Hints:
Layout: H1 2-5, H2 8-16, H3 21-62, H4 73-100, H5 103-107, H6 132-158, H7 161-184, H8 187-198, H9 204-216, H10 218-257, E1 261-265, H11 282-291, E2 295-302, H12 305-308, E3 313-320, E4 323-325, E5 331-334, H13 339-342, E6 349-353, E7 372-376, H14 378-382, E8 390-402, E9 411-430, E10 446-449, H15 451-457, E11 470-477, H16 483-496, E12 501-505, H17 506-549, H18 551-559, H19 564-605, H20 615-641, H21 645-650
Parallel strand pairs: 5-10, 7-9
Antiparallel strand pairs: 1-11, 1-12, 2-11, 3-4, 3-8, 6-9, 8-9
Amino acid sequence: MINVDSRTFEIGVMRMIGSQRTGVIMMLLSHAFLYAIPSWFFGLALAQVAAIGIKAGVGPLLGIEDVSPTLTWDGIVLGCLLGLLAPVLASILPIRAALGKNLHDSLDTRQSKTQAVKVEISRADQGKSISWEMVAIGFCLALFGASVYYGLPLALLTMNLGILINIFFLLLVSMLLGMVFLCLNLQSFVETALIKILFFWENRAVRAILSKNLIAHRPRNRKTSIMYALSLGFIIFISITATIQIQTIEYAKQQSHGVYLEAIAYNSRGSDGESRSLRDSAAHLERFANIDPRIESYAWVSQDLSSALQPSVSDTLATHNGNLFIRNGAKVYAVSPNIFDVMIPGFLNVDESKYEDKYIARALYQEDGYGGALVPSLYKAKLGLSIGKEFLIGYRVQRQTNRNQMEATAIESDSYTYYNTLRAEGFIKAAPGFRFSPFPLVPRQSILVSFPTFVNLTGGRFNSTKDVPLARFLMKVRTDMNKTSRDSLKRSLNDITSGTGWIFDYQQDVEPLKIPSLILNYIFSLTTLIAMFICFFSLMSSMFTNVYEQTKEIGVLRAIGVSTFRMRKVYIYEAFVLVLASSLLGIFIGLAIGYAMTLQQSLFTQFPIPFNFPWPILLTVLFGSMLFSLFASWTPIHHVVSMQVVQIFRYI
Length: 652
């Protein structure tokens, strides 16, 4: 509030002629509401207009045509609360600072209001031994700890996802606030570094005055620094979170299929259609892939063992030394030796193996690889396995016999479990196209074997590898193909697999995500600019007060020969350094919390999600810092230095 910080003399005069503190406070609050109430009304109207415009502009692109553009009652109530409470909360500290000065200091116009040295005397009186600030901080921390200590077990025991998400959000907000106050201690170091880096070419006297101004104005500028750091830190964190969610969707599709283009049998991946294998189209697919230059290599994946032997087989399980492990069963697949050469790199995470990661599947086809298997790293602990150690893979076989040949309905069913031996050739934590995980909560994890080993596991059901039903034909295609060439390739593959399978195209699946991702980048850049514009008013308030409280110093500098141009530069530089330092600290805070969010998401999903630096927001911050620092400091310093030196000394 500019009129509170810069009008301490007028407030002192009012107190001197008999105005009570309560009356002064009510006058200042009334003045604040005269600005807040019209802003609140026009803000709600502008929000309604913006909602209608956004839906009309980007609604068709984002697929939100059914969303109503009308403001909800919850939003209106929240806007009213913020619009009416904001002036009250914003007035507390300035009013407290203005009324906290004694009457002599408020009326003294000969001395500068800026204090480079501040001395506080604390009395150890018995009645003033309680620090209510520390009591409030301790109470909030105790309440926060109790909420997490009780709420987290409650959410896990009741499987209440809402409570768990609220706890995570509370932790993130606490990290954000904690890092903001922690980074305030680095503010002076960042400002000093920026002065030395950005203004090394500037006159030494200008740099000295700039440094001393930043030190003298630090108590008042701290509020502006908190606003910039907190708002930008939160925006960058939300931006990184939104980017992570889009990347998670993309990586989930990549991990689920393992390739950018594949042919899938109708009975695989839950697609509707007749239960058939790609075996009928295998020869044509291989012949086409060998002659088409757009396909660099290819590999095969069979149906899982239970599906291949249905309807008489179910419940595949793995066991060793009596440790039965049935976490919703296991899925055994036969794969080609070059399976991981064809698949998307970056997802394969081998826990232990005798071979290099890229050759781990080829080991299944070596001379001593028959009977070998690549198993989840979870089996290492659950089944007590190690490299080269054997374990049992089994499945239940349903056997039906007619008790009465005359009655077709009288059928007696029983079942038995068929076991076979496999040998652990490698332990995998994660792999593209298959389900591997070191965590027991992931159900129906995969086991990979060679095609000859797969035939042996069927117990004579299949006589050769040519009888194994094929579920997926994976293709490694050229990355420089355009859309026309890719569509032509898909049409050719559809003609070959007609009636037996369908074609998955990763680019087609993620195409709808490109436009929302681009729009989000623009939205967050615009939001950053809006946040800096809102903080601009706090910056302008600080610069107004800083300049008008230093009119005596400005007059002295003008009297000894400092030009008006250099005086303008000093205060423009001060605003720029203040905004840039606070913004950089906010960016650092947002990046730190965003990086923690990225690590958490990678842990939950087991995807190699990269951390993307928000370059558009950084460029927006640099542009906004220069623009707003110029506007915030030009008006007050131009008004003061435009006066004669004598007039500056007379200015109250």
